[in-house]
TrEMBL record:
Protein known as: RING-type E3 ubiquitin transferase
Annotated region described as Disordered, given as residue ranges: 640-691, 727-749
CHCR repeat positions: 432-591
InterPro entries assigned: ARM-type_fold (IPR016024), CHCR_PEP5_VPS11 (IPR057308), Clathrin_H-chain/VPS_repeat (IPR000547), PEP5_VPS11_N (IPR057307), TPR-like_helical_dom_sf (IPR011990), VPS11_C (IPR024763), WD40/YVTN_repeat-like_dom_sf (IPR015943)
Organism: Trametes cubensis
Biased composition, class Low complexity, residue ranges: 640-650
Top-level lineage group: Eukaryota
Length: 1300
């Protein structure tokens, strides 16, 4: 069949061999096509499905084909007829066919998921006739929606039948086999047969279902669901298509209509895209994103416009007049032909299955029946396009094929490389920008755009990097350097003022699109100080802002205001760095700021009249600024470099101002947008509510090295405002606001440092001027004010170094060093000061009454030279008189002192010597008389003793009158040998004897309180005498005798050195030359004590006492307070801490010694309750650091002062009284029986008394201690542990040696 020449013109689209033609063979016979296709003319229709390929023939049979093109299932769908149309969705197959038994077509619905095991046919769900009117009409097309809800059937007479809710009908079990929804005729056009149907599936934008209806002349759209459905179909386009030339696109969104001149895409409202592709078309199909076009048979010609046809003619010697069919695979989105082929006998069917395109040919002689068009891999297709330089088409194909971003970026990279090689740099950069996130920026920057001529392209790329938030510090540096090199101030302003583009993890846009540190650094290096300060100020980089203002711009006033607004905490650290530079340029203002920081508890205030436009110091040159940033001249940052010290950069005049012909860059920011306000603290509201922590003023002392006057003002202001301390206020400090967060120890150290430094500054002022005299008076006022917390030793050193005599004398007097004052003026006299001797005499008169030892010193001084003696002769006589009156020196010493040289004559002391000799004679006579008197008394007493002790010499009493009451004596009467008489006891001796008995009782009670004994020894007035006695005992080896057999005692392990010798306690006055115990011995004893208290807890009664604790000798040691070898205490127990708390809680004074605290409680009970006859005793239990307040023991019941026992009521009252007093501190509400200290585990027992060790051995194994002593060196115990062991021995020794 011939075709017009115009119709055979080849399309103008690019053609590519993107498909490979592969014949499909039978799996069992590779020389033949699949069995089902060997009878090609008998196949009526083919449709792909989810279950496989479905093939129907003209005999009414249906075949289900698998991937190997084998028949998996087959059945007869329409008996005696043929299958004309098929459609499958979700495993449901709908067939339309003709049967001999009916005039009208049959519609059958099959379930491909359920097959009959006997017949092999799927389950038939529905079967019904398709009837429209009385006359039958053939079915031209059929369409089934994806959800099975709608089925549309087009008839040859122009009628369209629509079945609604088909899915509900076929899945319903209540209906019969021929029950289907009632069909509805939605379109009729008798003159326009229906050539195409297709459903537009719902989407998010359009949730309704639409049906496209294609006739030979028109394209219509019918709304099948949703609001407004059921109306008349609307005409979309006035151009129709032939049968088979209309199909839905691969997205099921639009219908594709093929005409001879073009391909049209029609939507629900109007016609859409149009692709010009001339030539006749017999049918079209869709395969993925492709449209497959099949032309009707035509006669090939060597002059045809299509290259495919020309190639066919050239390669085949077909007979003249034979027709061929052309198949074209067209990509409408990218507008190219992916495959073009010819078939000599036409094309029977084209279908898409398993991701491949299959073509069924009618050719049964030359070639195979079934061909598979396999699409080449995307990489292979892209390589073809790369070789041809079609990168744009490659990008389009990559997007169509849904390649990932990395592959697409690689295409952009290669495209950019090609454009760069051609010199198209701008377009190349646009391609490189598309590679961001996938290609390293260094590839683009280093390889391509480091040429200065293409710096604009580099700026474009770097800006895009920053806008996407992918730039690092190096990129920011490079971009800012390009701005500065181009002098593009506008772009620089726009860049640094960009708001945040990156989003943080919490969803807030708080990340900058560039590296802030890098931006500030580069702007500083380039001399754009305003830009750098803008960034630092806006983003609260306080240190950077101050570094720029002070080191670079020299704008000290603005830096000072910024510091004040920052607040105390932020200003503290920055002033520690820049305080010296600020003081160098703004001394007064900086001093005020430092004072406010160190004294104010509220946030720092800013003066309202401060001008924000303070004229800054002109910017220095770029060179020094860069060096300053690199910390090369950080040591000289105290002062800003002047213009003469550096070379100005290009465009900058020598005086630091900008040249007229250079565009302004420093003020570009402030000309367009005002700078951001100075940041305060992160939470200003909270900062004002809470007090500000004041820093130590010592942090800023070093800054005032070259500013002594401002330093003085700073220290005086801090002392006055922070602590209320001034020179004038000597009584009470001025009231100041208290700091709740202040550390008292740190505050005291700061006060001492301030006043020490201030005193030194007063003394360092130059002398001979008014300011120097005023400073000396202030220094003396510091020393005279006793409330100022300066360090006297430090002040003494300063006064001595500076030669400040008034202060030196005052400090010596304060420290009790009056003798040094006198000697100082003596030395002054030796140095030639004529008035110094008079000052010596005056100081003697002042200090002499309290310090008599000064008189011999001054006497020696006044008689050292004839000149002094002549000048102070009367003073010498007066000194001698005082010495004689107060008996400061014996006469012999005075004579020796005066006779050491020839200055003093005998006439000077003649009268004094005569008086002293006369006085001595009188004393001798008096002593002689006293001696005679004592001898006579002694002889009389001895005679009396002899008479009383002589049994043969009776004593006769003639006294008939009582010596006490002066009444007459009645028999029986008692006569005492001391002569007074009384019925009971000698009234004259009773008081003395009572005192002696009380002393003995107290000694017995305090016998075990060794700590009290030792403290009294150390602090008592006879300490020196005791030390001498102790040394005497040591010299006699008394202690060594006690420890002679200590090595046999397993509980008395001594510390020894590496040679095995005992280590003695050094440096102790009381325990000198005593062997020290090891830590192991001390630990062993503590363990025994803890075990004892755990094994023998306090008791509530005295029944069944443990026999192992019975001590037969305890009755002799303790006396009547013990009973039957036991000693227990009945009362309330308090530890040392509880005792102190009790004394404090009762409002009594806490003493250093615990026995005094006990007496405080005892006096409190007697004063508070006035309990008649109550005696509260304090005893020591067998527990560490504890007391028991008791009324009686098991051997001594409580008694009244008048002698009778407590009755039950009095006992109850006594117990309740103690419980009320001690229970708030000990928690004990009832008294308990506590073991006395006599049962306490003893370690000092002599080794011969093995019975006394039984208890210790039951409490702790001494072999543990003995085993540990095999080492050559043991740890020396602490001195306190040694004391605890030696105290009982010390007490015993003192009693045996009768040292009271």
């Amino acid at each position: 069949m011939a075709q017009p020449a115009s119709a055979s013109a080849a399309p103008a689209w690019r053609q590519f061999p993107f498909f490979d033609v592969v014949p499909v063979k039978d799996i069992h016979d590779l020389a033949s096509p699949p069995e089902v296709f060997q009878k090609t003319p008998e196949i009526s229709t083919i449709t792909p499905s989810s279950a496989g390929l479905i093939v129907a023939d003209i005999h009414g049979s249906v075949y289900l084909i698998n991937r190997d093109f084998e028949i998996a299932k087959s059945w007869v769908a329409h008996t005696g007829g043929r299958v004309t149309h098929m459609a499958e969705r979700k495993g449901i197959l709908v067939t339309l066919g003709e049967e001999d038994t009916a005039r009208h077509p049959f519609l059958k619905v099959w379930d491909l998921q359920v097959f009959d095991k006997k017949t092999g046919a799927p389950l038939l769900l529905r079967s019904a006739k398709v009837q429209s009117g009385n006359r039958p009409h053939p079915v031209s097309v059929m369409a089934l929606s994806a959800s099975l809800s709608y089925l549309a059937i087009g008839l040859g007479d122009g009628t369209v039948i629509l079945y609604r809710h088909l899915d509900q009908s076929i899945y319903s079990t209540s209906g019969s086999l021929n029950t289907l929804p009632k069909p509805r005729i939605i379109h009729e056009s008798p003159t326009e047969p229906i050539t195409g149907l297709g459903f537009r599936e719902p989407t998010e934008d359009s949730p309704n279902v639409y049906l496209f209806i294609v006739t030979t002349n028109r394209v219509l759209c019918y709304q099948a669901s949703g609001k407004g459905s059921g109306g008349t179909p609307t005409v979309v386009d006035e151009i129709g298509a032939g049968l088979g030339c209309a199909t839905m696109d691969w997205k099921a969104r639009e219908v594709v209509v093929a005409r001879d001149e073009a391909l049209y895409l029609c939507g629900t409202d109007s016609r859409g895209s149009c692709y010009a592709y001339e030539g006749p078309k017999s049918s079209i199909y869709t395969h993925r994103n492709y449209i497959v076009i099949v032309s009707p048979p035509f006669t090939p010609s060597a002059s045809a416009a299509s290259a495919t046809v020309r190639n066919f003619v050239a390669k085949n010697n077909a007979p003249t007049g034979s027709d061929i069919t052309k198949l074209t695979v067209f990509d409408p989105e990218n507008q190219y032909v992916a495959h073009s082929g010819t078939f000599t006998e036409g094309v029977r069917e084209v279908f898409s299955a398993w991701g491949k395109l299959y073509v069924l040919s009618n050719d049964g002689k030359v070639g195979p029946f079934l061909l598979c068009l396999e699409e080449k891999p995307t990489s292979a297709k892209l390589e073809m396009l790369y070789r041809k330089g079609l990168y744009t088409l490659a990008l389009n194909i990559a997007e169509t094929q849904k390649l990932d971003e990395s592959h697409i970026a690689d295409i952009h990279k290669q495209y950019g490389d090609q454009l760069y090689a051609k010199g198209d740099y701008d377009n190349a950069m646009q391609q490189y920008i598309q590679t961001i996130r996938h290609v390293q920026p260094s590839y683009v920057i280093r390889k391509v755009f480091l040429d200065a001529q293409r710096i604009h392209n580099l700026v474009t790329y770097l800006q895009e990097l920053h806008s996407l938030g992918l730039a690092n510090a190096d990129h920011t540096t490079l971009l800012l350097n390009t701005y500065t090199k181009l002098k593009d101030v506008g772009r620089l302003d726009s860049f640094i003022k960009r708001e945040s583009l990156r989003t943080s993890a919490d969803g807030d846009k708080d990340e900058l699109p560039f590296d802030l540190d890098t931006a500030i650094r580069v702007c500083r290096q380039a001399g754009y100080f305003e830009h750098a300060s803008y960034l630092a100020k806006k983003y609260e980089r306080h240190e950077d802002y101050l570094r720029i203002q002070i080191e670079d711009a020299g704008n000290y006033k603005d830096a000072l205001k910024y510091l004040r607004r920052l607040g105390a905490e932020a200003a503290e650290s920055n002033l520690a760095r820049y305080g010296r530079a600020m003081l160098e340029n703004l001394p007064e203002e900086t001093t005020d700021l430092l004072i406010d920081i160190c004294t104010s508890l509220a946030p720092l205030s800013v003066d309202a009249d401060e001008s924000d436009s303070a004229a800054p110091v002109k910017q220095p040159s770029g060179g020094p600024s860069y060096l300053s940033y690199l910390a090369l001249n950080r040591a000289s940052v105290a002062s800003a470099p002047s213009a003469s010290e550096s070379t100005p950069p290009s465009g900058t005049q020598a005086n630091g101002s900008k040249a007229p012909d250079t565009p302004s860059r420093q003020h570009s920011i402030h000309d367009t947008t005002p700078p951001p306000s100075t940041p305060t603290t992160a939470h200003p509201s909270k900062a004002r509510l809470a007090s500000v922590k004041r820093p130590s003023p010592r942090l800023y002392f070093a800054h005032f090295v070259d500013h002594p006057h401002h330093f003085v003002r700073f220290l005086e202001s801090v002392a006055r405002k922070r602590w209320g301390q001034t020179l004038e206020n000597a009584s009470e400090p001025q009231p100041v606001e208290a700091d709740p967060n202040a550390d008292e120890q740190a505050e005291r150290r700061d006060q001492a440092a301030v006043w020490n430094t201030l005193f030194e500054l007063y003394l360092s002022q130059p002398q001979g001027t008014d300011s120097g005299a005023d400073s000396n008076s202030k220094a003396l006022a510091v020393l005279q004010n006793t409330r100022l917390p300066y360090d006297p030793t430090h002040a003494l050193i300063l006064c001595s170094t500076r030669g400040f005599t008034p202060g030196l004398v005052l400090l010596w007097e304060r420290m009790g060093m009056q003798e040094d004052v006198v000697r100082f003026f003596m030395d002054r006299h030796q140095d030639g000061d004529t008035d110094a001797s008079a000052e010596v005499v005056r100081r003697l008169d002042q200090y002499g009454p309290a310090r008599p030892q000064l008189y011999p010193l001054v006497l020696r001084f006044l008689t050292s030279t004839p000149a002094l003696l002549t000048k102070h002769r009367e003073d010498v006589r007066r000194v001698l008189g005082v010495i004689d009156e107060q008996k400061i020196m014996p006469p012999v010493s005075v004579v020796q002192l005066l006779s050491r040289n020839s200055v003093a004559s005998v006439g000077l002391v003649k009268e004094w010597l005569m008086a002293r000799i006369k006085s001595a004679r009188e004393e001798v006579e008096t002593d002689q008389k006293l001696i005679s008197s004592y001898r006579a008394d002694t002889e009389a007493k001895l005679q009396q003793v002899q008479e009383l002790s002589d049994p043969d010499r009776p004593r006769v009493f003639h006294v008939t009158q009582c010596s006490a009451c002066q009444g007459g004596l009645d028999l029986p009467a008692v006569h005492f040998m001391c002569l007074p008489q009384n019925e009971t006891e000698c009234p004259n001796c009773a008081r003395e004897h009572g005192i002696i008995r009380e002393i003995r009782r107290n000694n017995e009670r305090l016998a075990d309180q060794h700590d009290l004994f030792l403290s009294e020894v150390r602090e008592g007035p006879n300490k020196l005498a005791f030390d001498s006695h102790l040394k005497t005992l040591n010299s006699s080896n008394a202690f060594e005798m006690l420890f002679a057999r200590g090595d046999e005692n397993p509980f008395m392990e001594y510390a020894r050195d590496s040679e095995g010798n005992r280590i003695w306690a050094p440096g102790s006055v009381i325990f000198c030359d005593l062997p020290m115990l090891t830590d192991r011995a001390i630990s062993l004893r503590k363990e025994a004590i803890r075990t004892f208290n755990a094994r023998y807890p306090p008791r509530t009664d005295l029944d069944s006492l443990p026999p192992e604790l019975r001590m037969p000798d305890i009755d002799k040691d303790v006396g009547r307070e013990s009973k039957d070898g036991y000693y227990l205490i009945y009362g309330f127990l308090l530890t040392m801490e509880q005792l102190h708390s009790c004394v404090e809680g009762l409002g009594r004074k806490i003493h250093e010694h615990d026995i005094d605290n006990y007496y405080e409680i005892r006096r409190y009970l007697q004063e508070r309750y006035n309990f008649d006859g109550l005696k509260v005793l304090c005893d020591t239990p067998a527990q560490l650091d504890s007391f028991v307040f008791t009324l009686w023991t098991n051997g001594k019941p409580g008694r009244h002062a008048n002698g009778h026992l407590y009755d039950q009521e009095e006992e109850r009252r006594a117990i309740q009284l103690l419980a009320d007093t001690f229970s708030p501190y000990s928690g004990q509400t009832q008294p308990m029986w506590y073991w006395g200290r006599e049962h306490f585990p003893s370690f000092c027992t002599h080794p011969t008394d093995r019975e006394r060790w039984k208890l210790l051995t039951s409490l702790v194994d001494p072999n543990v201690l003995r085993a540990s002593s095999t080492a050559s060196m043991v740890t020396v115990a602490s001195r306190s542990a040694c004391h605890r062991t030696l105290v009982p021995l010390m007490a015993h020794l003192m009693q045996t040696q009768n040292y009271q």
